[in-house]
Write a structure and sequence with these properties.
Number of strands: 0
Strand content: under 5%
Distance between the termini: 55 Å
Order of helices and strands: HHH
Shape: elongated
Largest sheet: none
Helix content: 40-55%
Number of helices: 3
């Protein structure tokens, strides 16, 4: 391993998706990410195809799942909201 290279470099996954889309648009193509709704699954698939493992901290779906679980816990402990 080369000591001059950083051990791990991270990027916001949406920055990479944006760069890919700009590259495709500059080539005259009209990329679409998902046909409707949350583009998270399509973006994750694009990143995986590029050999990039998307991280869950930036995934809005994880946040939504956590919020739903917290709401269930609040209801169980404190009763109806």
């Amino acid at each position: 391993m080369d000591d001059d290279l950083p051990a791990d470099e991270t990027y916001n996954p949406w920055t990479i998706v944006n760069a890919v889309f700009h590259h495709l648009a500059d080539a005259g193509l009209h990329p679409v990410l998902g046909t409707a709704g949350d583009p998270g699954d399509a973006a994750a698939a694009l990143l995986l195809a590029l050999g990039i493992r998307p991280s869950t901290p930036g995934d809005a779906r994880s946040l939504q799942d956590a919020e739903a679980e917290l709401a269930q816990l609040r209801e169980a402990v404190f009763g109806d909201p």
